[in-house]
Amino acid sequence: MDNIKNKIQQLGRALGRQYVPDNYTDYKSLRSEYEALANRDVKLMQQESKKHRIQAIQGRSDLNAKWTFANLIEDNEDVIEAVSIARSFIAAHEDINWRRSGSHMMIFYGDYGRGKSHTAGAIAHELIEQYEISVLYRQLSSILEMRFFSYDYNAQDNVAQKFREINQELLDVDLLILDEVCVNESTLKKNAQSWLGNLLRQRLANHKNCILITNHNLAELEQALGSYCFESIKEYDTYKVKFSGPSRRKEIIPSQPETKPVTSGYRPNQVR
């Protein structure tokens, strides 16, 4: 026996009308609703996954978290120009063909405290956030020290294996930042020159980018690195940025000479 709903439908058809329940949703609308919900969930999962990937890259990079453009003081023409070049370098990564077309190197040079490392770090943070570019920040002197100690075959701290792992990272990472290049060195030892030159040549062949940070001027840098190593640098698409403004670091020694307190000259237990 037909229920009341069927009878109403039969009556509707007889009158040329179709019965539609109050809670009825057509298939097309229902499918669109579920697709929207699914797309939202997928987007949230992708955002969370990207967040974890970025955190992992940042954790490996060894970057100072404060080295951002927001914290960079643009109080001099050299820094303003450096930031402009840096932002152009970052924006170029939008073009996949540009990334694959060659190897690029930025040389930041100038005296201590001028913002070289900060600017390089800001570039790195932006590339990680926007394009998930892998970055490694290292001081050249610390790498060379580890390389030296890796030849101690009696060592028990596994330093040779650690250096091999770091050396592979230096080759593989998308952007390598080498700071304090030839600091307190007028000329690197020949074996260090060869090692660094080979590293740069292999990165060049694999279209990997570099930032070198040094306190030397360009002529002194060429002398310190040696011809073999410096010729490697010339093969890159090179951007040279000089930092010549005032130091941003806090003073420890006062700019005005300190005056000694005036004393009477009396000393306790003085024999007269």
From TrEMBL:
Domain IstB-like ATP-binding per the UniProt entry, residue ranges: 94-226
InterPro entries: IstB_ATP-bd, P-loop_NTPase
Chain residue ranges for the region called Disordered: 250-272
Superkingdom per UniProt: Bacteria
Record GO biological process: DNA replication
Signal peptide coordinates: none
One Pfam family this sequence matches: IstB_IS21
GO molecular function terms listed in the Swiss-Prot or TrEMBL record: ATP binding
UniProt protein name: Flavodoxin
Upper lineage: Bacteria, Pseudomonadati, Pseudomonadota, Gammaproteobacteria, Alteromonadales
